[in-house]
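Weekly modeling sync, notes
Attendees: S.R. (lead), two postdocs, one rotation student

Agenda item 3: backlog of single-chain predictions. S.R. asked that every request posted to the team notebook include the full sequence so nobody has to chase files. The rotation student volunteered to paste the first one in as an example of the format we agreed on. Action items at the bottom.

Example entry:
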Amino acid sequence: MNTHRRGFARADLLTALVCLAFATVVLSPVQGRLSLASRSAGSEDNLRSLAIANASFAADHDDTIANFDWRALDPMVHNGNFVRQPPYDMGNGVRYTPKNTYEASQGQACFIIRYATRRDENHPKPITIDFNIMPQRRFLYLTMLPYLGGTLPSDVAASPLDKHLLEWRANPFDYHALPGGDPKTASSSTWSREQVLNRWPYASSYQSTVYAWSPDAVGSHGSLPLAPAGDGTRIGIMNPRSCTAQRPMTDVVTPSRKVFLFEEFDYTTGLGVNGTHYTNAEATVAVQLFDGSVRRVTTRDANPGWDPRRPGDKTATAEIRYRPIDSRYFPDDTGLAQPNAGYYKWTRDGLRGTDVNPESP
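Predicted structure, as returned to the notebook:
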């Protein structure tokens, strides 16, 4: 009886390697699609969690949409006399007296991050008040933090697709590790401001419609208090005294078709420079509506919005020329004007308007 066992010949090994390589080539695109689908699903799960947090906030705050609630410290009547309200305590002996609601929200956002991270004046890279930062844009979720676990950075605030933010979070105190390079040499002027850098690890991948926290009716000055600025991605302040406001949920006329939060992390498919900005007609982004539902919407099916500088002209829309924070991940649309940049953010008629085409799937 022949008990000699046949060994694994070199030819067999070569055949196995060829098969493995072939399988890798065939399956890689499939695995990539599965990974992208998983990260997209994770982003949608985040939005659902934020929807629950907003509902909890509203239940605890007289049906108010999540927003900062510090107020300007103007003189008040006490026992028939005008007295000055005490300033807010920012911690570490710092006191703050905001002059208007806008400054109050800036101070409160700063306070929340300082309190949760202990990044006060004793920290080598402290969080301090910056009057140039509109906190509602990327930090509105801070007002929902007690309902999200209360820790920073919050996993719910960062989309699994937002590689830029996730990389920065990994090295929040090392500016040389900043995605896009050292801020001294990075092309974006964004990184020239220290407080932008210090806050960025706690920013959110999701932006809210402006009118969730700002009036959408024309004031006595003849325009809305906020409008697109610069390249269209920034927010210009027309009237700082009325640019922020507590809005009740009942102001939302079409909660099942009105977007509260949307993916605004520059690319929408996880494909980086091969992806599209959310204002591109072919972009598909996850949105959270005011009824708490989450869906993916193709931009061409969304309300193109308006230009708040001309609110009386229903045909006027704001253009956008997008310059990316980090060109490694985001396409540069500086030379391409998107004619309708109001999607979700500058929706016509504000909370009374409709973001999503009711006929879209």
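Discussion: group reviewed the output briefly. The chain has five helices and twelve strands.
Action items: rotation student to repeat for the remaining queue; S.R. to check formatting next week.
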